[in-house]
Amino acid sequence: MKISVIITLKKDVLDPQGKVIHQTLDGMGFQDINEVRQGKYFEIDTKETDNDKAKAKVEEMCKKLLANLVIENYKIIDPK
Amino acid sequence: MKSSVITFPGSNCDRDMDVALKKFGFKNKMVWHADTELPKSDLVVLPGGFSYGDYLRCGSMASKSKIMQSVINFANSGGMVMGICNGFQILVETGLVPGVLLRNKYLEFICKNVFVKINDKKNKYFKNVDNEVLEFHIAHNEGNYFCTNDQLKEIEDNNQIAINYCDENGKIEDQFNPNGSLKNIAGIFNKEKNVLGMMPHPERMIDTSLSGEDGSLFFKNLINNLK
After folding, report:
1. Catalytic annotation, pick one of B85, B93, B137, B166
2. CA distance B27 to B215
3. pLDDT (0 to 100) of residue A70
4. With CB atoms counted within 10 Å of each terminal CB, which end of chain B scores lower, N or C?
5. Longest dimension (CA), chain A
6. What is the DSSP letter of B57?
7. Is the pLDDT of residue B208 over 70?
8. Inter-chain contact A14–B107, Cβ cutoff 8 Å?
9. Could you tell me which chain A residue has the CA closest to the CA of B60?
10. What pLDDT score does A80 carry?
């Protein structure tokens, strides 16, 4: 089963990379952007076949390694 | 005095640290990240470098390596643990010191000498250092210290800030902040002050012909404090 995780920076955390991407897009003519925030995307292929158990495991992975909860939020996308 | 320097895949200041510790009288051992037991040590150092290629977040992989459980136990039982640069990043990822280190504010890798002001001397790292200001070297891409407001309050209430970026006279201002760190924080302690994480490299300041001597002051003082 494949589970996806999206990690984003929390609202109050400065995202200099997002800012530079925003400026560059702006310079390219995409001038209606309010803000760009950069995040991370993971695809985890697990042997677990039970949907809930797999999600619980991935949540544990997020808390222990994939995200740093001081600055980041994680969102687990329901496996299809 | 016995010390141990942990080498992770991608560490590159481990041997500099070994040279510095030995120069000032430590009997130092190099310890591989995949080992599980720490040699008997009065000081454990997590060196600078780019452990695991800085993948995911700087220090995140190294913080889960086998030896780190022993380092965490050692720190929790009062042992002296010092993390320099990438070592500081590893320490924040273990949670031994609060906060995180973000990408530098202006997205530049910064490599230069800086001045830092010692904020607290009631600890074994800086006790009896005569100077208020030290000149160290920094070389990092992710040294922008950040923590939550609650953490900052706790850090300030417990006087856990070790050193702040400043000018040569010890003035702590925004213009002397190289990387955007909150409150110009360059180094921080855990609550008990046996664990120190800092971005600057004292081991690069131990030779007058190459750099400066402020690292020498730091290490000479440290070994005396541990005796």
Report:
1. B85
2. 18
3. 93
4. C
5. 47
6. S
7. yes
8. no
9. A65
10. 66
Residue of B nearest to A65 (CA): B60
Mean pLDDT across B61-87: 97
Distance from CA of B184 to the nearest CA of A (A): 16
Active site (annotated) includes residue B85 = yes
- Please give the ipTM for the structure prediction: 0.82
- The pair of three-digit structure tokens given for residue B31, joined into one six-digit string: 């310890």
* Residues on chain A touching B144 (C-beta within 8 angstroms): 14
DSSP A34-46: ------EEEEEE-
- In the residue annotation, B33 being an active-site residue is answered as no
Tokens describing residue B153: 């309050």
Residue type, A15: D
Q: Residue B73 and residue B94: Cα distance in Å, rounded?
A: 11
Bridge partners (DSSP) listed for residue B74: none
Domains and their CATH numbers in chain A? 2-77 (3.30.1280.10)
Q: Which domains does chain B have, with CATH numbers?
A: 2-226 (3.40.50.880)
Q: How far is B180 from chain A (nearest CA, A)?
A: 10
State the 10-residue block means of pLDDT for chain A, 80 residues long: 95 89 93 95 95 95 96 89
Q: What's the burial of A30, exposed, middle or buried (CB within 10 Å: 0-12/13-18/19+)?
A: exposed
Best A22, A23, A24, A70 residue to mutate vs chain B (most B CBs within 10 Å): A70
**B180:A14 CB<8 A:** yes
